Amino acid sequence: MASGSLTIIGTGYLAAGHLTAESLGYAETAEKLFLLVGDPVTKLWLQSLNSTAEDLHDCYAAGKPRLQSYQEMVECMLAPVRSGQNVVVAFYGHPGVFVYPSHEAIRIARKEGFPARMLPAISAEDCLFADLGIDPAAHGCHSFEATDFLIRKRVFDPRSHLILWQIGAVGVVTYENTSLWSRSGLEILMEELLKYYPGHHEVTIYEASVLPICEPKMERISLEQLSEASVSVVSTLYVPPREKAEPDPEMLQRLNLTLPESGGRPQ
Q: Does the pLDDT at position 43 exceed 80?
């Protein structure tokens, strides 16, 4: 039986504040700890918890394909596992949301016979729901990576919540040192959204807070202003429903449901 193991944890977004007690225990007792976090406070804190901590950010380089960096991260994580160590890797946010290396490392580790698991954590979407006061069950919710949304012509209902991730990196496959990676990509995204929403439709550019003393970024603008807005690679775009979806009378009858006078969920 393989003696090494791999555990992937998430630090959430609030510096040293979102890590669960379960994940904290794994980080402290790991024989080897890797980390890839979004702020220096969390990085220093994790390094103070475990002297073996190693930053995976060194796998990035300006102009280097991100997939190549991700593959290097996977090999870094698996090397000590194969040598018999209990390895823990801490990613910011939720380690299973927009984190290719975590899923790939677990897949390979299990294929090679090593125990591997992922622990849940607070994601940027969790923060967005809380900060913007959105209930995804109220109207339904679509969530897409922005480039994927465009190139695959994703089908969505504009009467539902729409969340688009990484709007500052549309069409970019390399790692860059600038805050906004593609202004032209942002403009293309705006043009596509204007096919479904009026120009005056209010949208929100969102970034979760990483420090308790800082407020999250919640910049509300009209959709037609998006291409010139202040956007970074970590910005998320929230587009509220264009209109309320009306219930289907025939389906209500088939399900023997009625709606309250004020609307809302079936009774």
A: yes
Collapsing DSSP to helix, strand or coil, 55 comes out as: strand
Taking the CA atoms of residue 76, residue 77, residue 81 and residue 82 in that order, the dihedral angle to the nearest 10 degrees is -40
Predicted pLDDT of residue 16:
78
CA distance 124 to 133: 14
The torsion angles phi and psi of 252, rounded to 5 degrees, stand at -60, -40
Residue 1, pLDDT > 90, answer: no
In 3D space, the residue among 75, 46, 83, 47 whose CA is nearest the CA of residue 59 turns out to be 75
Handedness of CA 95, 101, 104, 105 (dihedral sign): negative
89 - beta bridge partners? 8, 34
Six-digit token string for 74 = 């996977």
Query: Residue length, the chain?
Result: 267
Question: Is the distance from CB of 24 to CB of 111 less than 8 angstroms?
Answer: no
Q: Which residue reads 């970024």 in tokens?
A: 217
Q: Which of 91, 120, 106 is nearest to 22 (CA)?
A: 120
Classify the C-alpha dihedral 123-127-128-130 as positive or negative.
positive
| Other residues' Cβ atoms within 10 Å of the Cβ of residue 157 | 15
Beta-strand relationship, 5-10 and 86-91: parallel
- Residues annotated catalytic, as ranges: 66, 70, 92
Rounded CA-CA distance 204/118 in Å is 31
- pTM confidence score: 0.89
Strands of 119-262 (E only): list them: 141-145, 161-165, 202-207, 217-222, 236-239
